[in-house]
Write a structure and sequence with these properties.
The complex is a heterodimer of chains A (about 100) and B (about 300). Chain A is of the alpha+beta class and about 100 residues long. Chain A has one helix and three strands; from the N terminus they run H-E-E-E. Classes of the chains: A alpha+beta (about 100), B alpha+beta (about 300).
């Protein structure tokens, strides 16, 4: 039995609407989730900002708006005092002692 | 650049240091031994021809003294006042009776001479008639002077002041050290405090910008008399070598002569009273080494210790 004349058009429309809805969902998700992020507690935490590595050329970059985030590594440090680096005393110019 | 000159004077090892630019010749240092020779000729009790020896043999009559001897006597008088009589030059006879009757390098390590069994407090310089207008001193019979440590501290201060016209200077007169000011680069002068139990090693390194440091001790100038150990720090209250638990006392003060006097006070007084006295004087900081090896620091000492 032959297809109905405009059945393919309907399918195409469904795909387009689905794609737009999916894209909008992702966009809104990304937009609102960024504002809802809570600041990270950084007491006793040492942070190190690293430059993002250059993506390989064969990888597609997904852009959802804004610059690519920097990678942040959190390193938890124990709260004990670090030992001071030892400095050696300067060589004395002279010495004091009982009169000699 | 720190230039050093070492020599012997006043029966001790001396060092003069002058901080000058690299291309400047330290000619001033060559003059220092001459200064000490002049002062020793005036202030030594071991030289038969010295001015002090002549003064000591002039008991009972006024003796006119030089500017140098007058100035050192005035310094000794002030030291006696500040130390409540514990540091006085009137101890010569007590020193001789204890066996210290010649310069230390000629002293036998042990003498068979028995100690006298009677000691008496010594007189004070404040009881001596000093006539300023005529610059005369009239010693009472039976009282003779030994300017020992006072003379060395005074000489270190005086030599440092003279050298400081050329640049930052330091003079060490047998352990009494005077410093004119910081080094040319702004750093304090590092000075070691010798360990009396291991003289080749230092117990501490202290950093001194200006002023004086001195150590008084019974670890080196000591000898046996009649089988009993004696030393050269006389307690004027008894006329005997001081009975104390302090082996050496090192003091930092505004001048070398003040440091010398304060170190003697701390040593004669003993660890407890000596430390209390150091703490009560805001211009002093000190460290005591006790006979049992303990180290005791006054609170202000931490300002000078190398960290």
């Amino acid at each position: 039995m032959p297809n109905k004349p405009n059945a393919k058009n309907k399918d195409d429309l469904k795909v387009i609407i689905t794609a737009i809805a999916f894209t909008l969902t992702l966009a809104f998700w990304n937009f609102f989730s960024a504002g809802a992020q809570k600041p990270v507690q950084t007491t006793n935490i040492q942070t190190a900002n690293l430059e993002p590595s250059v993506p390989p050329t064969n990888q597609v970059k997904i852009l959802l708006g804004g610059p690519a985030p920097k990678t942040t590594i959190f390193i938890s440090q124990p709260s004990v005092a670090q030992p001071r680096p030892q400095r050696s005393a300067p060589r004395p110019v002279t010495r004091t002692a009982s009169s000699k | 650049m720190i230039n050093k000159y070492e020599f012997k004077a006043m029966g001790c090892h001396m060092l003069a240091a002058l901080d000058l630019p690299v291309n400047v010749t330290p000619t001033q240092l060559d003059q220092v031994p001459g200064w000490f020779e002049t002062w020793e000729q005036s202030l030594s009790r071991f030289r038969e021809t010295s001015e002090l020896t002549k003064l000591n043999s002039s008991a009972g009559r006024p003796f006119q003294v030089s500017d140098t001897l007058w100035e050192v006597l005035q310094t000794a008088l002030e030291s006696e006042r500040l130390s409540f009589g514990l540091v006085t030059p009137t101890v010569l006879d007590a020193l001789v009776m204890a066996g210290y009757d010649r310069s230390f390098d000629q002293l036998p390590p042990a003498s068979s001479v028995l100690m006298r069994d009677y000691f008496a407090p010594v007189g004070l310089l404040s009881e001596v008639l000093l006539e300023e207008s005529a610059r005369t001193v009239c010693l009472p019979p039976g009282l003779r002077l030994d300017l020992g440590g006072i003379a060395k501290g005074w000489a270190a201060d005086r030599a440092t002041r003279r050298l400081s016209d050329a640049g930052p200077a330091l003079v060490n007169a047998g352990g009494d050290i005077a410093v004119s000011g910081p080094q040319s680069n702004g750093d304090a002068w590092p000075i070691g405090i010798s360990d009396p139990f291991n003289p080749e090693a230092d117990l501490e390194t202290i950093m001194i910008n200006r002023g004086g440091v001195a150590t008084s001790g019974k670890d080196y100038r000591r000898w046996q008399q009649g089988g009993i150990w004696q030393h050269h720090i006389i307690d004027p209250r008894t006329g005997m070598p001081a009975q104390t638990d302090v082996l050496t006392a090192t003091v930092i003060a505004p001048s070398a002569v003040e440091a010398e006097v304060a170190a003697k006070v701390a040593l004669i007084s003993g660890s407890r009273a000596g430390l209390d006295w150091l703490e009560s004087n805001s211009s002093l900081a000190g460290m005591l080494v006790l006979e049992d090896g303990q180290l005791i620091y006054s609170r202000r000492m931490s300002q000078y210790q190398w960290r």
